[in-house]
Amino acid sequence: MTEPVDLFVIGGGSGGVRAARIAAGHGAKVALAEEYRYGGTCVIRGCVPKKLLVLASRFADEFARAADFGWTPVDARFDWASLRAAKDRELARLEGLYRDGLARAGVRTIDSRAVLEGPDLVRLSSTGERVRARRVLIATGGTPSRPGIPGAELAITSNEIFDLSALPSRMVIEGGGFIAVEFACLLQRLGVQVTLVYRGELVLRRFDDDLRVHLDAAMRESGIEIRTGETITAIERRGASFRVATERGEIDAGLVMLAIGRVPNTQGLGLERAGVEIDERGAIRVTPDSRTSAASVWAVGDVTDRVALTPVAIREGHAFADSEFGNERWVCDHEDVPAAVFTTPEIGTVGLTEAQARERFARVDIYRSRFRPMSNVLSARVERMLMKLVVDHDSDRVLGVHLCGPDAAEMIQLAAIPLKMGATKRQFDRTMAVHPTAAEELVTMREPVVPDRGAAG
Fold first, then answer.
1. Does the N terminus or the C terminus of the chain have fewer Cβ atoms within 10 A?
2. Is the pTM value of this prediction over 0.70?
3. What is the mean pLDDT of the chain?
């Protein structure tokens, strides 16, 4: 057994790395074990490479409307291998930054799987070395879920999509969450004919219904086939392609991608030996300050199944490190967390949906605007932008902001600040508009709309 440490972190993703660096900065002796690559889901197989692919895909729209703005059309051709290589170089650079940051902070990094042998004892799978720790932080993230259907092993998930040797001509994607709709939009623009199969009536369950309807229409307009109320029941290989069976028939595809959700990555961590409780989905049960049922074990990020977003994991890890090693106790606030969905058009959202607001407040005012963004006014594109404010009628406080259109993600970060501060609609109205921008609609919507879809707005 090697020399004890103050903190042992299992998982080198965003939450674990932040916690390790902050704890070390407070003077703690820290070790961190990662079995794959530093950076976790976000940097290696999630947010970052996905956003790079999204940006690449949007050039298709830019090339298509360039002639409407006076440019002579060019014979633009897309090369997947070149994009994949550029993406890999950027990921390698970012992983290096993660490793360097830990080294500069004085954290011992260990390239190995680590499992618990007790509430304060960790074993490294690569060497069998055992490390005693005053505190253990589990930050192992999540992993794609696979259904128990025949042929599920033939499909890829979001883990494999980034490293394909070539893109297929046709792909079937199952799912209706962030990952499914983002990849459906970007792959369609990169030349793949996409069919999206989703068991629900509208994609992006739990989002505001106006956003869901708006995005559904935009995706269909772009050529994506959306088949709702269906699930994949079997996948069969047919030569170089696949036959996908659903309750309503069969679909031929060059590749099948399952994006039906992610589950906490807790299998084989030895949680039972440490006395760490999990719920029915395999998520580690934690208190608001990330404590588990074991006195010396904490957990942050997607493995806890609270809010599965990278900035949340980072904030949870930071709060843990400050509280346990920096004599500054605080907890991560999970209310009014802004989020973006990098579809095309993209979504930015923060606060309550209209349906949630109507459940909690007696009277709710809805301000909504649909318009063609300026980037489309000279072209034949019919795509429109949606902006929506949800307001408590009695206090005038803005409860939710929901956007769908160009730069929605950038706008929602700024809109989240006044919402978090409790800003009122009157304060929005008193803010001077920046013209000509799409964002000015946030401060120029004056009259509440009459709901046209009942309580859903």
1. N
2. yes
3. 95
